[in-house]
Amino acid sequence: MSATAPFLNTAPLLIVTDVGARLVRRGLLEPADAAAGGWLRARALVFRRGPVVCEAAPAPARALTLPPVRPTFPAPMTLALHNTLTRRVEPFQPLPLPHARVTMYTCGPTVWNYAHIGNFRTFLFEDLLRRFLEYSGYQVFHIMNLTDVDDRTIKAAAAAGQRLDEYTAPFIRAFYEDRDYLRIRPAHAYPRATQSIPAMVRLVERLLERGVAYRGDDGSIYFAIAKFPGYGRLSRLDTRELKIGARVASDEYAKDDPRDFALWKKAEPIDEQVGAAWDAPFGRGRPGWHLECSAMSLEAIRPAQTLDIHAGGVDLIFPHHEDEIAQSEAATGRPFARFWVHGEFLNVRGTKMSKRFGNFLTARDLREQGVDAAALRLLFWQTHYRQPLDFSDEALDAATEGVRRLSEFRDRLSGDGRRGTGDERLAELAARFEADVRTALDDDLNAPRACAALFEFVRAGNRELDRGTGSGAAREALDRVMGVLDVLPTRRTADAELERWIEARIAARDKARKAKDFKEADRLRAELRARGVEIEDTPAGTKWRLT
Ligand SMILES: [Zn+2]
Fold this sequence. Notes:
Bound molecules: zinc ion
Number of helices: 18
Low-confidence stretches: 1-20, 23-30, 32-75
Number of strands: 19
């Protein structure tokens, strides 16, 4: 495989030469940082949208001899992902050596309450992305933060008369439980905002030193968006709309209200009351929400300063991710993330599922209702992550039926391992199925198409099995794909008592059948089914399984 310079992958819009010195003159880079980062030596800087510097080629000679992509990669990556930065589906490649892995940062939950399944739709699409990268042979380093200090957590803790850490602890535990219930692979790091304050203080200091942050007359520290020419690049804000010099202190603000935002908020009595105030050289206070993610992600990937993927819900594009880019790139002079990947909302009757609208369902609601996580996963995969998805009980019921059919098929494949003349045909179907799934997911994670291939395989595979053939290759292919989609129902297990009861019923039914008392045999089968036991009569005797 030939080595490809990473900055050539994203179709530069404009290349300007010899601009390192110009950046220093404009105050965007300190001379020392420019030298350390190779900017002063830079002959070419690649610009994407707007004037912000995205990538620097230290020197053409070195750029042409970049080290090869990690040799252990099984195959050239064929994944293409929609990048919100460019609004295009682009071929994905992680940064080459020395990073040698895919770094992925996903904005985590704000632990002021239980996360609802709209939040989990985002976490699930990120799980699919992570699993597919791993399936494709990549080593992924996944970081998900926990926002355990922000406007909402502080307000909620104060209302409950608790300290912040006391208040958030049960919601953090609940988040991990819900994650496990929904079979989301745990991230490799879960930095918590309250435990990352020193990194945040360092970042604010750096932004102050660089002159892109200032102290407002309310004592808080703000980011000056006018000092960062690329502000609005991600969300495509028209820079003329920027309200230069106007400030906003709250973590969340309207899309049409781009203003200088708070990096560090001066401690208020309510912050002190719940234990959400820290000393800093620029005054006692607490971090703004946007600052938290910049500091935690940069800290987690040190010494690198660029993430391969930053993901989240579409509602985070502005202001949260726009502000993350501004803070991070103004501090490091490097592109913050190469791919920005955003998932659409989960709607209920056309309205975004949200605590604000009171139309939300939590993961624990579903668990208490006995909903199998496989059904929810399948339901979500059946709509592309960049399309809004309307949640309804009917859709969930249909997905439940889908995972049941899949489970039956998987059991048939496991069956008795018979091998016959049709083996190759089933193995062929399996190979085509796996290739179709891979092609679908390579195409900007087209999970609906992968699911269509899955159920086509179930249909065609069942037909082959009806002819009495079996194939280990088919089962292995299905299991590999399940490593990505993970939509087989949770296995119920029978305890010893239930097992004895089942065996007794089956023995009684056999006796009834021998005596040609089919009415009694049917009654016993119905009794078994009522307790979730499916039976199948085979030449080797009656087999049972729990559904
Ligand atoms: Zn974030």
